[in-house]
Structure formats: structure tokens, C-alpha cells
Amino acid sequence: MNHIVNVGDFKIGCDGDMLVTHALGSCLGLTVFDPVAKVGGLLHAMLSLSSINPQKAQANPAMFVDTGVPMLFRSLYEKGALKGRLVVKAAGCGNPMGKNEVFKIGERNYTVLKKLLWKNNILLESEDVGGTNSRTIHFDVSNGQVTLSSAGIKRLL
User: Fold this and answer.
1) How far is CA 76 from the centre of its chain?
2) Which of 16, 118, 150, 152 has the most beta carbons within 10 angstroms of its beta carbon?
3) pTM to 2 decimal places
4) Residues 77-97: pLDDT tens digits?
5) Residue 71 has what DSSP assignment?
6) What's the gap between Cα 94 and its chain centre?
């Protein structure tokens, strides 16, 4: 079954589910998969730090990298995933406005992600971050395959 993950949202899927998110520009798209438990999740986080708007962060933690990533991992652990088996992939964190983009939202999102993963001793298996092109993720939870579409080109992540 297909599940669309909107901006500032995440979804957990199990064997047979396809998780899809569109329009990853500066946003972070993060897939996490446990191949034994056959459970995975996809996060589409918009901003890096929840401290810029604590009320929004409380209402929607998935909107922010620093609150959405831990929430995604906790949700997967509740479904039987184990940290040592996780396959983690990242996409997005781009600069859709080009080099003159002042706020560097994509770079900030990526920096916060890397710090969170480093602090928790988790490595990215693969990533496709930066640049100016928007990306779409199709995450097949039955086998962990992540297909990335960008600028009319599809490839595995």
C-alpha cells in the first residue's frame, strides 16, 4: 500500500508498504529500515531546530530535524526494530535557491542530522544531499529499496 509522507510528517510502514515523499528541496528526507523486522520509516523534516518555534515543535515534532529524527527512531523501536540492524539513508538538504540562498536551510538540516547520528553512533549507508534539484523518494519497506527521482532521472539510493 502507498503512503504519502507530507512536509513535516513521517510514516512507519511494514512489509508490502511503499512510503513516498515529494519535493525535497532544502528539507531532509530520511529513511530508516530494519531488514529483519521488515519495518521502516520515512521522515520529511522541514527545519533544523525546534527551538525556533517550541509551540510548533510540540504540536508537530516531525517538522524539525532535531525532534523528528528521534521520534522516527523511537517509533521504529516500538515496532521491533533494533538499532544494530538499521539501514539509514538521507536525501534532500539542498539549496533550491542557488548559491545566494541566505538562510542555508538545507545545510543546517544536514548538519543537525549528522550531529544526531554521530551522538547516537549511527552511520548513514548512503545519501544524496545538496545541490539545487528537488527530489522524490520511493521507499519499498518490503526490501528496503530506496529509489530517488530528481530532474527526471531515477536511481537507487
Assistant:
1) 13
2) 150
3) 0.95
4) 999 999 999 999 999 999 887
5) H
6) 13
